[in-house]
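Data deposition worksheet. Section B asks for the primary sequence of the deposited chain exactly as it was used as input, without tags or linkers unless they were present during the calculation. Section C holds the resulting structure in token form. Section D is free text for depositor observations; keep each observation to a single sentence. Incomplete worksheets are returned to the depositor.
Section A, Depositor: J.P.
Section B:
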Amino acid sequence: MTINKQFKQWIPVIVFIAIAIAFRFYRTSNENHYLLAGSDGPYLPLQVRSLFEHCKLAFPDMPLLFVLCTLVAKLFYFLHLGTVNECVLLAVRFIDTFLPPYAVIPVYLIAKVLRKEGLKIKFSYYFLVAFSIFSFTPLYIFSFQLQKNGLATILIFTFLFYVLKIITNERKSDLIKAIVVLILCAFTHFGSFGFLVFITITTFSVWLLTQRNSYENHTCRILLSLVAVLIVSFSLIAFFDFTRFLRIINVPFKLFEAPVLLFALAGQNFVLNGSNLIILIAMNLLAITGLIILVRRRKQIDTNKYIIGLSMTICTIFLSNPILGLEWASRLFMLAYIPVTILYLILYNITDSKWFKIPTLSVF
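Section C:
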């Protein structure tokens, strides 16, 4: 493929990034917003100001986002763009505006890996690539608030890209890159790191079940590598924020505590309403439909793509489960768009049926 053709394929991706940046810039500069809006309020600027002035965080937390914001704030201050406070606030808005939209790049790379050899990137692929940054969660929930989640989204999709390459190519370099991305995610947001751990364990389990006759030594090496990386990552989390480390260790025991469905049936509907309910219904519809197509076409799908597709289906159904506990439900519901995006990049590659594509695209 010539450079000119490759560039043409990247044009829609560049346009998506530009539109997302413009929208986020509008949200962070709109005069109707308060100075420190969003669910986090002054927390992020406070942490950045502390790192700027004292080279340490005011409160224990994973440091990567704060370090990036501090570096940008110091650059702005060096350029005499304002006072320390002004440079800190400007840096926070700069990172929140310009970085999260780049999550579209690993999604596009995943689409290129999953497409059939020699075929062009289809409209449905570009639609899903755009969905990864224009759906409700990244566009509204991770914009001007929950900035660590927004940055971690780039790392999550990048990790999935390398997982896909590991399964299809089994290159050592891809494994190393995936490990680096996983550790960076641990440095960014412990919840997103836990999400990647869940995806990793799910994918590895599905791989074991579908490759029973060919694992042995290869499986042992992967398993030992996985255990080593998890130990290092959890140790880093414990070092920077021991309270969060204890929380993530206790997640399996509290995940289904006080299910949101029971609250809704009792008339105390704190979670299953508004956008959460719409996301929950849409994600379950897409996951169940995807599972049916995946199972029916399993003999026509490359084994590696089937493993990833089945793993993403399981993750989507789990994240959209109404029996999740009250403490974790909202956080997990808003992540369901990630595995369902990868799932449908696979499904749209194995079927051209309009009876399947049009209804599912409308649900997105």
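Section D:
The chain has a mean pLDDT of 76.
The chain is about 75% helix and 0% strand.
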